[in-house]
TrEMBL record:
<dbReference type="InterPro" id="IPR029044">
    <property type="entry name" value="Nucleotide-diphossugar_trans"/>
</dbReference>
<dbReference type="InterPro" id="IPR001173">
    <property type="entry name" value="Glyco_trans_2-like"/>
</dbReference>
<feature type="domain" description="Glycosyltransferase 2-like">
    <location>
        <begin position="8"/>
        <end position="166"/>
    </location>
</feature>
<protein>
    <recommendedName>
        <fullName>Glycosyltransferase 2-like domain-containing protein</fullName>
    </recommendedName>
</protein>
<dbReference type="Pfam" id="PF00535">
    <property type="entry name" value="Glycos_transf_2"/>
</dbReference>
<dbReference type="GO" id="GO:0016758">
    <property type="term" value="F:hexosyltransferase activity"/>
</dbReference>
Length: 334
């Protein structure tokens, strides 16, 4: 059997509300030379029945049903089983516009020095209406993407198409970077290839308050900070100590992990900056981290992250008076 040009990697977990629309949009692509790997990651809703019904109608669909293992193991399984030259990501609640694959294949065919191409996106609500209040214009050319590595946003993960050979070369996604596995991947791929985005908006990206970016803000910022630190080690010609990790250690263990003092302190400051505008994180596990950051800087006030007193007011306005009082006490002691 001739291998397809594209392997679509679709991981599904309890997406039955949106899954049919996602699958329909993939099967309606103008570029049809693809296989569609669908990992049902232990869904407890009707996702399995929807996947099997579509697979019975279209031989390009290869369903994989497994116990719940999480996104990273699911993606790595699809990379291992992929037969296409290119791997196209997609989530079970998004919608690909008909020309998405055709435009991305044409770009990668014409730019052999590029290993990844995403697209700009149209944000939609949980019910599918456009969100006029939420627009991100991802950088287009490779130089702009590289320049945005530290601050982002770089690429919309479910919009990207990547060369399978590169994904295999870098070892796929890394388990330690759960909730920011895509950002760690972009940092590693940037060291080997060029990445870009098409200017066209070729994916309807469903944006809701239940997404990882809302539910795991602290973990995302912590993982991203460590990923940047690991990148700096690689660029300096030193081993990446996070390579092979299955989870990230507590912040206080980072000095020992990276073999020098001051790493944990720097990471606490960076994560503090990242979560200042997220009251749920400020009031939860982020509060002890910020308090420790304040203690770090008692003898060096110039190094303290600005805006912490405003964060107290933000917590109070968000209906979290206890957390506001605890943060205010930590700042007053400092």
């Amino acid at each position: 059997m001739t291998s397809p040009r594209i392997t679509v990697a679709l991981s599904v977990y309890n997406n039955d509300r949106y899954l049919a629309a996602a699958l329909d949009s993939l099967l309606a692509q103008s570029f049809g030379d693809f296989e569609l790997l669908v990992v049902n990651d232990g869904s407890t809703d009707g996702s399995r029945a929807i996947i099997d019904a579509y697979a019975a109608r279209d031989p390009r669909i290869r369903p994989i049903h497994q116990p719940n293992r999480g996104l990273v193991p699911s993606l790595n399984r699809m990379i291992a089983e992929a037969r296409g030259d290119y791997i196209a990501r997609m989530d079970g609640d998004d919608i690909a516009l008909p020309e998405r694959f055709a435009r991305q294949v044409a770009f990668l065919d014409a730019h052999p020095d590029h290993g990844v191409v995403g697209t700009r996106v149209i944000a939609i609500t949980e019910t599918g209406e456009p969100r006029a209040d939420w627009t991100i214009d991802h950088p287009i050319d490779a130089d702009a993407v590289h320049a945005a590595l530290e601050a982002g946003p770089l690429l919309c993960h479910p919009s990207v198409m990547m060369r399978r050979s590169l994904m295999t070369m870098v070892g796929g996604y890394r388990a330690a970077y759960r909730h920011c596995e895509d950002y760690d991947l972009w940092l590693r791929l940037d060291e080997r290839t060029r990445m870009a985005n098409l200017p066209e908006r070729l994916l309807r990206y469903r944006y809701s308050t239940t997404q990882v970016s809302h539910r795991h803000v602290l973990a995302q910022h912590y993982g991203a900070a460590v990923a940047r630190l690991a990148r700096a080690e690689r660029i300096a010609g030193r081993p990446d100590p996070t390579d092979g990790w299955t989870t990230l250690p507590p912040v206080d263990d980072l000095d020992a992990a990276f073999g020098r003092a001051g790493v944990a302190r720097a990471i606490r400051a960076e994560v503090t900056r990242g979560i200042l505008y997220h009251p749920d994180s400020l009031a939860g596990d982020g509060l002890p981290l910020i308090a420790k950051h304040v203690r770090d800087t008692r003898s060096d006030r110039g190094a303290r992250v600005p805006g912490l007193w405003r964060a107290v007011a933000r917590l109070a306005r968000s209906g979290k008076p206890v957390a506001a009082m605890r943060l205010a006490k930590a700042l007053a002691r400092g």
